[in-house]
Amino acid sequence: MKNNKTRSVAILSGEIPSTTFIEHLILGVSKTYTVKLFGTVSKSTTYEANVEIYETPTNRFKNLCLTVYRGLSLLIRRPKDYKLLVKEIQRFSSRFERWTWFSKFVPIVLYRPDILHLQWARDLEFYAFFKTTFNIPLVLSLRGAHINYTPIVEPKIASLYKKTFPLVDTFHAVSNAIAGEATKYGNIENRTVHIPSPLPNAFFTKYKPRPTRTNGLINIVSVGRFHWVKGFRYAIDAISILKTRGYEVRYTIIGASQKSEAILFQLHQLQLQSEVHIKGKLPQDDVLKYLQTQDVLLLPSIKEGLANVVLEAMAIGLPVISTDCGGMAEVIIHKETGWLVPVRDAEAIANAVVDFVNTDNESLNQLTKKAHHRVSEQHDYDTIIAAFINLYDTICT
């Protein structure tokens, strides 16, 4: 692989550090390209060499000082670019908005990357002008919510995609299913590359056969925020069905940073306060440790791109029950590498749990081995990072 460290790519998600899978991407790409990160810093983060952070401070005084410095630097070094940027921010209605976006845009223009890789489709509304005004190539990742349901519930976003998708040089899709969804907003097939999310090798080294269950308690875990698209109401209905059938179940939901009134009322109405336990957001390492104590992972979502927690569970040997949403069928083969059930079907979820319980230990270990092998082939870290490098190389040539 050729060394492109004189080339740079901005991996833009808006927050530093970003989500786990984007952080994996940053670390992998930085071995070959200089990675530039623009956005707010939520906590101090140390990266390996070849990652440059250009913070947009949330502190107003610090933001004022840094933005004035950057603006003057751009004016002195490249006055034409400064004038183009000032003209661009006039599209925002208020002075406060113009200043806010100027403080976000000016470091990108000043420390110009060779490629701007947007991680969220909605951001295209604000950053598309870097292609039209500054001729910076754009890569857009197609992930989950921003493609699967946002343009459906917000028609103006669908119109925005139809307007801005032609400006994108290359689309990166985490699954074939989500690439298909995105074609509703433009003729993008010839500009789309399917690259799954990378899983670091450390996940695969944690694989172990599932121990024989020694008691009747079924430990089920889900990971995700409280949002209707995550389908937790159907998971909880399934727990109620299992309880009615006489099964002893403990269901834990991790990652719900805010309580949901609808979910709390549902738990009260179904008298499941003892069976369902809600944990807040946990660090990635703690989530992984918790998964290793559970019997089965449940993904009850209505829509997904390709759920990373499912990939992680399959990598470590935790059986998975998932709804057949988004790209999940691309990794889960029903009763071979996990269980796949229809969306919005609590009865089907409950039946899959019963089938899991009735599967003998040898058959279950064969299933988790196949699942582990499947994700190790499809989501090998080095292979996927190489695919991203190839994508960037193609654009930079």
Can you describe what's shown?
By secondary structure, the chain is an alpha/beta fold. It contains 18 helices and 14 strands. The protein is 45% helix and 17% strand. Strands 1, 2, 3, 4, 5, 6, 7 and 8 form an eight-stranded parallel β-sheet that branches. It is elongated, with a radius of gyration of 23 Å.
Quick recap of the structure?
The chain is built from 18 helices and 14 strands.
Describe the secondary-structure layout.
Layout: E1 4-12, E2 14-16, H1 20-29, E3 33-41, E4 51-55, H2 60-77, H3 79-88, H4 95-110, E5 115-118, H5 124-127, H6 129-132, E6 138-142, H7 144-148, H8 150-153, H9 155-164, E7 170-173, H10 176-182, E8 192-194, H11 201-205, E9 218-223, H12 232-244, E10 249-254, H13 261-269, E11 276-279, H14 284-291, E12 296-299, H15 308-316, E13 320-323, E14 339-341, H16 346-358, H17 361-378, H18 381-396
Parallel strand pairs: 1-3, 1-5, 2-3, 3-4, 5-6, 6-7, 7-8, 9-10, 9-12, 10-11, 12-13, 13-14
